[in-house]
Write a structure and sequence with these properties.
The protein is an alpha/beta fold. It is built from eight helices and 13 strands. It has a seven-stranded mixed beta sheet. Strands 7-8-9-10-11-12 form a six-stranded mixed beta sheet, with helices on one face. Strand 10, helix 5 (263-270) and strand 11 form a beta-alpha-beta unit. Helix 5 packs parallel to helix 7 (297-307) and helix 7 packs across helix 8 (329-340). It is globular. The chain starts with 67 loop residues before the first helix and ends with a strand.
C-alpha cells in the first residue's frame, strides 16, 4: 500500500534513551524494552517482482523544487563551489585505504569507499550502497579523494541498494562491473533502468515496503529529496533510504541523500533499535538552495537522535565537490555537534575514506 506524504508540519515524537527523567522521578532499574514498530511492518514482497507504478511521484515531495527565480539567484551569486581557501584542505581529508574486514560470524561491519558508497556486512550478507567507483560523474569535477576500497579486493557482493537516480548515487560504469545476477533493491519506478542493463533480480519498492534476501530484511523508507536523471524524467522514480535488518535483529539505516525533516522520527518509531545510521553531512551550502534536500552536519546529528540510532557514520562529503562549503568543514562541524549534544565520542564512526568499523 502506498503511503502518501503527510503535511510538512506533521511530526511524531518519541522518548529517547538519552532524555532526562522528570525531577524527583525514581531512577529506572532496568532498560526499557523497545517499543513495537508502529504501524506494524509490511510483509516482505517477492524478490524480482514486476510491478506497475504511477508515471510521476511529485506528490511525495516534502518541499517544492526550485523555480526560475531560485535558478536565477543561484546563477547570479555563483555559489557553486568553494573558493581556493575552501579547497586548500583537500590534502587533510582523512584517507586511509584498507581491506574490507573478513568476518567469521554474522555481525555488522561497514567500510567507506567514499561519498555514499559503503560495503555493509550484515546478517552474513555483503551489501553495496549507491556504488560509485568512477573517478568522475556527469557535471561534476573529478573526485578529490581516490576511491578508498579497491574494486578487485572486494568480497563477493550479495546485494546492492540504490537510494535514487542522481548521478552521484547511480553510476552506470560501476554497476556494469557487477554480475547481472546480483540482486538489486531500488526505488519504485527505477527497475526498468536496471532491467534494460540485463540485471535479472531487480526488486522495486515503495516507501515502507520490504523484501528479504537470505534472512536479511530490506525496507525502503522515505527521504526528503527528489529524483532526476535527464531533462524529461523529474520525479519519475521514487527516492529514499534503506533499513537493513539481520535475522538477529541488528539494524543499519542507510539514509541515501536527504534533507532534515519529520521522516526521521517516523522511521525511528517504525524500526526501533537501529544500531548504526549512515547519514549525509555534506553538500549543504548555500542553505537557501540546499536545505530542503541535504542535511547540514548539525541536522545529521539531530536526525541520528530522531532515529534513535545508537551510532552514526557520516557520509556524502570529502569525495565530490558538489556545493560551496569548505571541503573539510562537514567533518569539523559534525564532530562539534556530536560533542555539543553530549553524545559518546565512540558512537560517532567518522571513518576515513577507505576505513572500516566492526560492531563489537
Amino acid at each position: 500500500m502506498t503511503q502518501q506524504t503527510p503535511p510538512s508540519g506533521s511530526t511524531t515524537t518519541t522518548m529517547t534513551a538519552g532524555e532526562a527523567a522528570a525531577p524527583g522521578a525514581p531512577a529506572p532499574t532496568a532498560p526499557t524494552p523497545l517499543a513495537p514498530p508502529f504501524p506494524p511492518l509490511a510483509e516482505p514482497r517477492p524478490l524480482g517482482e514486476h510491478r506497475f507504478w504511477p508515471r510521476l511521484f511529485h506528490d511525495r515531495l516534502t518541499a517544492p523544487l526550485p523555480g526560475l527565480k531560485a535558478f536565477a539567484r543561484f546563477a547570479r551569486e555563483g555559489s557553486v563551489r568553494p573558493g581556493p581557501e575552501g579547497l586548500a584542505d583537500i590534502r587533510h581529508i582523512p584517507y586511509e585505504p584498507g581491506p574490507v574486514p573478513r568476518l567469521d560470524a554474522p555481525t555488522i561491519a561497514v567500510s567507506w569507499a567514499g561519498h555514499a558508497s559503503w560495503v555493509v556486512q550484515i546478517g552474513g550478507l555483503v551489501v553495496l550502497t549507491d556504488p560509485v567507483w568512477s573517478r568522475r560523474i556527469l557535471g561534476t569535477p573529478a573526485r578529490i579523494t581516490p576511491v578508498g576500497l579497491a574494486w578487485s579486493a572486494l568480497p563477493r557482493i550479495d546485494a546492492v541498494v540504490i537510494s535514487h537516480n542522481h548521478y552521484d548515487h547511480l553510476d552506470a560504469p560501476t554497476l556494469r562491473r557487477l554480475p547481472r545476477h546480483t540482486p538489486v533493491f531500488v526505488p519504485a519506478g527505477l527497475g526498468r533502468w536496471f532491467r534494460r542493463r540485463r540485471f535479472t533480480t531487480v526488486t522495486e519498492l515503495d516507501w515502507w515496503e520490504a523484501s528479504e534476501l537470505s534472512g536479511v530484511r530490506f525496507d525502503f523508507v522515505p527521504a526528503h529529496h527528489w529524483s532526476k536523471r535527464t531533462l524529461t524524467d523529474t520525479c519519475r522514480s521514487l527516492w529514499g533510504g534503506w533499513v537493513l535488518t539481520a535475522p538477529d535483529g541488528q539494524r543499519v539505516h542507510f539514509a541515501g541523500d536527504t534533507g532534515y525533516g519529520h521522516w526521521f522520527s517516523r522511521i525511528g518509531r517504525r524500526y526501533p533499535g537501529i544500531d548504526l545510521a549512515l547519514l549525509p553531512i555534506g553538500a549543504y551550502h548555500p542553505r537557501w538552495w540546499l536545505s530542503d534536500v541535504h542535511c547540514d552536519p548539525e541536522e545529521a546529528v539531530r536526525a541520528a537522535q530522531d532515529l534513535g540510532a545508537r551510532r552514526m557514520a557520516p557520509m556524502h562529503w570529502g569525495t565530490f565537490v558538489l556545493s560551496a562549503e569548505p571541503v573539510l568543514e562537514p567533518l569539523t562541524r559534525v564532530r562539534d555537534a556530536w560533542e555539543k549534544e553530549g553524545l559518546d565520542r565512540e558512537d560517532l564512526w567518522d571513518v576515513p575514506v577507505g576505513g572500516s568499523r566492526v560492531l563489537a
